[in-house]
Amino acid sequence: MASANPGVPPAAGVPLAPLCTLGIGGPARWLVRATSRDEVAAAYAWAADRGVPLFVLGGGSNVVIADEGVDGLVLHIALTGVEVSTAGADTLMTAGAGEAWDAVVAGAVTRGLAGVECLSGIPGTVGGTPIQNVGAYGQEVGHVIESLTAFDLHEQGMVRLDASECAFAYRMSRFKRADAGRFVVCDVTFRLREGPPTTTYPDVVDQLARDGIKTPDVRQTREAVLAIRRRKGMVIDAVDPDTRSVGSFFMNPVVSRASYDRIAAINSHVRVPSYVMQNGGVKIPAAWLIEQSGFAKGHAEGRVGLSTKHPLALINRGGATARDVVTVAGRIKRAVIDRFGVSLRPEPVFVGFSNDSDVEFLINHEGREEV
Ligand code: NAP
Questions:
Q1: Is the beta carbon of 207 within 6 A of some atom in ligand 1?
Q2: Domain that holds residue 328
């Protein structure tokens, strides 16, 4: 059982907007930065002793915080450090959950290790990556995670989970489903190996060709991915307003074959971009559905808009509120339902909203056709 006193006592009334990439949200009633596993456990005990809800905040890149703020203890994960060891031909890298994810990727690439180079330029921290099994351009963390250490709120103690216990699936894990809110990830161990990069994704292939690179190494592949992401406004950049977002606001839906045929019939004048998944479902880019429903890149509604570079990123155009964001997101979701009967699911987590019909509409599926 953890000690009831965090190393640092929680601070009261801490603004959260500066801790989030969207730059929106009211204050935390209390906030504590945890720099060690003991501090995570102690923060849990502090909240439990007082009957106060606990909210975990990592890099703030995938969260929409209510304008009213968060009535509870926000646990800001700041565990750092990277340890490297060898295991036969493999290299194990263990990184603190508060490490910037892209710095860990850069460290792996510098060592010539393959496995995460396509995950370059993704904002946020290491601890967030297993939650949604972050993936991009043909790689996903679930393929290289060896294990992780987490504080288990049910057991009130640290546990080690092997990758096989994390139920990784496409942008999904047990941490988002059955065990949402149960674990606070403290560190993650990645199993990487020297070798050729993954260059299967068409955008990456095109970029490398554009750069005149025939036999890319992991460093060149990382640079190619960064170039693609920058073009899409998906690399955080203080001087680029298109990056004041949570990245993609909606997930790419996977629909049944029958739904795909129905959607194709609605839009028979253009080909619907689609990719058949291993389970037979058909993935359709959310960006395409959104554009076809009347929301183009650069669309603006007051203080909220869509990035001029990518229709999937809702941006804070300056002074936006969380209410503005959920209202515009709801309008987009409604338009896609009305046109295609597909209920898009938001990617970010909504914190501090209770019994909020706008947020309920966004996160519910209404029995729509997505599989
Ligand atoms: P994009 O590259 O145009 O991809 C849009 C959708 O089309 C994605 O679902 C993507 O699949 C799919 N797709 C594209 N080419 C494909 C191919 N050759 N085979 C199979 N599927 C293909 O658009 P984007 O929104 O800018 O995304 C870029 C990458 O970042 C994608 O890999 C996307 O998944 C990833 N991403 C990940 C997260 C996350 O982890 N939470 C958030 C945002 C974006 P895949 O999703 O399988 O790649």
A1: no
A2: 241-364
| Domain termination site, one of 59, 77, 95 | 77
**Nearest protein Cα to ligand 1, atom 22:** 275
What CATH number does residue 73 fall under?
3.30.43.10
Residues 17-55: pLDDT tens digits? Answer: 999 999 999 999 999 999 999 999 999 999 999 999 999
When comparing pLDDT for 348 and 371, which is higher? Answer: 348
- Binding site membership of 171 for ligand 1 (Cβ less than 6 Å): yes
Q: 236 lies in a domain? A: no
- Give the closest residue (by CA) to ligand 1 atom 10: 285
Residue 162 in tokens: 């092997």
The answer to whether the CB of 248 is under 6 A from ligand 1 is yes
34 and 113 in a single domain? The answer is no
Q: Which amino acid would we find at residue 139?
A: Q
DSSP string, 190-231: EEEEESPPP--SHHHHHHHHHTT-SS--HHHHHHHHHHHHHH
Residue 67, pLDDT > 80, answer: yes
Q: Say if CB 336 and CB 290 are below 8 A apart.
A: yes
The verdict on 96 and 214 lying in the same domain is yes
The band of 2, judged by pLDDT with boundaries at 50, 70 and 90, is: very low
171 annotated active-site = yes
Ligand 1 pocket check for 254: Cβ under 6 Å: no
